[in-house]
Amino acid sequence: QVQLVESGGGLVQAGGSLRLSCAASGRTFSNYHMGWFRQAPGKEREFVANIRWSGGITSYADSVKGRFTISRDNAKSTVYLQMNSLKAEDTAVYYCAAKSVFKREYDYWGQGTQVIVSS
Hints:
By secondary structure, this protein is an all-beta fold. Helices cover 0% and strands 53% of the residues.
C-alpha cells in the first residue's frame, strides 16, 4: 500500500502562485510514477501532469503547459506541483496519484487539496 497526503492548497488571486506537495509513504517511492489530477465542481476528473520514477520525463495537459511544473524528490518521497499564473479555471480539488512502474493505471490516490482562484 502507498499512502498519499496532499497539502498546499488554498485561496489565491488570479495571476498568483501556489505550490502543492504530496508526501508518500508505505512503499519505495522511486518505484512509482506520480501524477497530479484535478476535478472542478460538476466536471470529470482530468489529468494535469505526471512525472516518471526518475524525474527525467514529465508531461502536462495543454491547459497548464508553461504555467505548471511537476517535480519530485525521491529522497523525501514527495512530489510537487508548482502552479504559476493561476486562472479562475484552475479552481478544483487537486489529487496526486501513484502508479507502479509495472502498471498502466494509477493504483493509489490522495484525499485531495482544494485550490480556489479568485478572479
